[in-house]
Structures are given as C-alpha cells and as structure tokens.
Amino acid sequence: MPFQSVTKLADADFPTAWGHFRILGFEGVVANPIPCNVDLPAPATRIESAVALVMGDIHAAPPIVRIHSQCLTGDVFHSLRCDCQQQLHQALDMIAAEGTGILLYEQQEGRGIGLMAKLRAYELQDHGRDTIEANLELGYAADCRHFELPAAILSSLGLTAVRLITNNPEKVEALELAGIQVVERLSATVPSAPTNAQYLQTKREKMGHLVL
Ligand SMILES: Nc1nc2c(ncn2[C@@H]2O[C@H](COP(=O)(O)OP(=O)(O)OP(=O)(O)O)[C@@H](O)[C@H]2O)c(=O)[nH]1
Ligand SMILES: [Zn+2]
Hints:
This protein is of the alpha/beta class. The protein has one domain: Rossmann fold (3-Layer(aba) Sandwich). It contains seven helices and seven strands, in the order E-E-E-E-H-H-E-H-H-H-E-H-E-H. The chain has helices at residues 72-76, 84-98, 115-126, 131-137, 148-156, 169-177, 197-206, and strands at residues 3-16, 19-31, 45-55, 64-69, 101-106, 161-165, 181-186. Strand 6, helix 6 (169-177) and strand 7 (181-186) form a beta-alpha-beta unit. Helix 3 (115-126) crosses helix 4 (131-137). The protein is globular, with a radius of gyration of 17 Å. The mean pLDDT is 93. Residues 71, 73-74, 82, 84 line the site of zinc ion (ZN). Guanosine-5'-triphosphate (GTP) binds at residues 69-71, 82, 84, 87, 108-111, 113, 118, 121, 131, 135, 166-168, 171, 188, 203, 209. Its EC number is 3.5.4.25. Its cofactor is Zn(2+). Residues 10-186 form the GTP cyclohydrolase II domain. Catalyzes the conversion of GTP to 2,5-diamino-6-ribosylamino-4(3H)-pyrimidinone 5'-phosphate (DARP), formate and pyrophosphate.
C-alpha cells in the first residue's frame, strides 16, 4: 500500500525501566487504502502513526528490531488472552541486554481492526469462534495489518539490514520487499498458558506463524 509521505514528527529523550532510549514519533499518509471491512466505506486517505524507541548505536551492526502491533488489553492490562505483553517485555529485555536496538510500536490495534472490533471479536471467541473466524464473522479480513510504515521508518533511520524479533513470516517478507535485509530472525515465542493456548494454536496452524 503506497505511502504519500512518512514524516518524523518528534525526537525526544526517553528514560525507561529498561534503560535509556530516544522516542521518535512518525506519521504516514496512505493514499487509497484497501478497505478492511466489507461493510465499511474506504476513506480516500488514512493516516497511520508509529513510535520508535531507539537505544544505542544502531548503525554499528544490524540492530535487533521488534515491530510490535498495539494491544491495549495485553500491553497495558497484562491480559492473559494473548502473548503480546510478554513479547513486548521480552523484546525490550533483549534490546537492553545488547545495549542497542529498536522497538517500533505501531498503532494497528487488534491486527488492524481497532479496539472496539477486537472486543467484539473477543465476545464471539467466548462463544466458540477462533480469532480468524471471529474477524470474518464481523466482516473483517483475518489480519488487516500491513508493515509498510515500520519498513519506511527503518529506511528513514538509514538501516538496510536488521535482526528481527518475530514469529510472523509476513513481517520478514514486508521488510525484505522494502529493501531491508533480515539477516537473522529471532524467536518471539513466550511460554503459553491455558488462557492463550487456543490463540497460539490458531496462529501456528491457521496463520503460519512460527510459534514453537
Ligand atoms: N482481531 C484480533 N486481534 C487480536 C486478537 N488477539 C490479539 N490481537 C492483536 O494481534 C496483534 C498481535 O499480533 P499477533 O498475531 O499476536 O502477532 P504478530 O505481531 O503478527 O507476530 P509476532 O511478531 O510473532 O508477535 C495485536 O495488534 C493484538 O491487539 C484477537 O483475538 N483478535
Ligand atoms: Zn495481545
């Protein structure tokens, strides 16, 4: 999906529990976005935003990168329905251990369907649907995300090669397509729990994620 523009809007000091980062804010304008829901009209343009947490010298060698999709329920409320919060913390632990790396936090809540639709999908899952079936029943694609904005941000940071923390082959493909070499894929697998076992099984069996 082509971007009309990708702009860096802010670059500030950012001390955290994991160490010292810079926090960068980016905005991208997408022209003629493909609608994600069959029942909703597509706007002429869509604005996407993402945050980059940058630690250390990211140009000395291909840095560790995590592209993390927003999950309010997991990241903020520590939900046990998914593995997002543990993945977020694991990635920040890995970056802190190396003293360098980038966490891209992109606002594609609920695999791009938005928070309210994700909560409605949870309701359907409570009645037996898996994550994909619930999205489809609400008129959405199984996964509405695309990863052009994170790729464009990495390019704008002057990177041509990274080590990517992910189990999702689509993220690797998206970066490679954008001319960013993924020289290593680092596993984003975290221990499963009874509350997220079916969620992880669907990712593995129906979405092709490399969850061990
Ligand atoms: N639609 C929908 N989205 C969900 C659900 N559970 C979690 N999500 C969203 O899924 C996104 C995370 O995607 P995942 O498929 O778990 O993982 P990934 O980012 O593709 O892959 P990794 O890089 O391996 O973590 C976040 O935006 C969550 O809000 C759900 O039941 N339904
Ligand atoms: Zn989550």
